[in-house]
Specification:
The protein has 288 residues and is an alpha/beta fold. It has helices at 18-27, 39-58, 64-72, 80-84, 98-111, 165-177, 194-210, 216-227, 233-240, 242-256, 265-273, and strands at residues 8-12, 31-35, 74-77, 89-92, 117-120, 140-144, 154-158, 181-185. Bound molecules: 3-hydroxybutanoyl-coenzyme A.
Length: 288
């Protein structure tokens, strides 16, 4: 199998990442079916595509024909069978819960054609933790996009010990077709490259705010103006979701019991209040 055999892509999960990955794939000329258990998420994802693509035409970034073709090639369904049944490549972007992912991969293994590749967009769950839920571990890998997936150029492709060279190569080639810059990691490591670096930055930023050395706004101003990052760590946590930061740090702390990894009270407080960032209209900043 090679990249030219990939025609139909299935995206599992229409949330923050899934809906944008789906649009990336149709824009690269693939036929894409996006599925989610939530009808509401599917409706939101469809509404996004229907407003985003014409907006790109208005901005002169896309021709009317390209937008029409992308909309024709994109469909949404709550049925996993319908979405995955004819897929050549599947990108799972469901919630970051191990049990859910393992169940999904077992179902996908049953439903998807035997040659289909099953990739996970998971940020922290390495594919060796889910590959054994399938009978095709050689066709399982991590394909990690960044938020917003339509804009951010990088994808981390992570080859687990079970992943074949062919699967990793096709995934690298798919990234190129999507117009992404990919890095190929041949060893699994928690957080891959970018989230390890980012979490060191956020941890220090949270510590400085907790100690009252500077406010989140001041720290964001410092980072954007001194380091040239488009967003400071607090605005970025609002974008990616304070709930995700909470789950990730809590899990890491519980596994290590290292007091240095204890979630920051600034994160815990907002998590409990349901102030999860942009998606709830309030986090470190207000988006009303
Ligand atoms: N969806 C799609 N496109 C978007 C977008 C969105 N949510 N937000 C902005 N854009 C596009 C705009 O359409 C515009 O495109 P154009 O130039 O082709 O017309 C372009 O991005 C710039 O948009 P704006 O001028 O409105 O906004 P900014 O210049 O402020 O850029 C940003 C917004 C792209 C989000 C920028 O602030 C940025 O790059 N922030 C950093 C994001 C980042 O670091 N992401 C990685 C997060 S870590 C992660 O994802 C890991 C995961 O595991 C959680």
């Amino acid at each position: 199998m090679n990249i030219e055999d990939i025609k139909n892509i299935c995206i599992i999960g229409a949330g923050n990442m899934g809906h944008q990955i789906a649009v990336c794939c149709v824009l690269a000329g693939y036929k894409v079916t996006c599925t989610d258990i939530s009808q509401e998420m599917l409706a939101k994802a469809e509404a996004f595509a229907k407003s985003y693509l014409p907006e790109r035409v208005t901005k002169g970034k896309l021709s009317q024909e390209q937008a029409d073709m992308a909309l024709d090639n994109l469909c949404f369904t709550p049925s996993l069978e319908e979405a995955a049944g004819g897929a050549d490549y599947i990108i799972e972007a469901a919630v970051e819960k191990m049990a859910i992912k393992r169940k999904l991969f077992a179902d996908l293994d049953r439903i998807a054609p035997p040659q289909a590749i099953l990739a996970t967009n998971s940020s922290y769950i390495v594919s060796s933790q889910i590959a054994d839920a399938t009978k095709r571990p050689d066709k399982v890998c991590n394909m990690h996009f960044f938020n917003p997936a339509l804009v951010m150029k990088l994808v981390e492709v992570v080859q687990g010990p079970h992943t074949s060279e062919e699967t990793a190569q096709i995934t690298m080639d798919l990234c190129a077709k999507l117009g992404k810059r990919a890095v190929w990691l041949k060893k699994e490591i928690y957080g891959f490259l970018v989230n390890r670096i980012l979490s060191a930055l956020s941890q220090e930023a949270l510590y400085l705010a907790e100690m009252g050395i500077a406010t989140p706004e001041e720290i964001d101003i410092a980072v954007t103006n001194a380091l040239g990052h488009p967003m400071g760590p607090f605005r970025l946590m609002d974008l990616t979701g304070i709930d995700l930061t909470y789950y990730r740090t809590m899990e890491r702390y519980q596994n290590s019991r290292d007091p240095k990894l204890k979630p920051s009270p600034l994160v815990v407080e907002r998590f409990i209040k349901g102030e999860w960032g942009k998606k709830t209209k309030k986090g470190f900043y207000s988006y009303e």
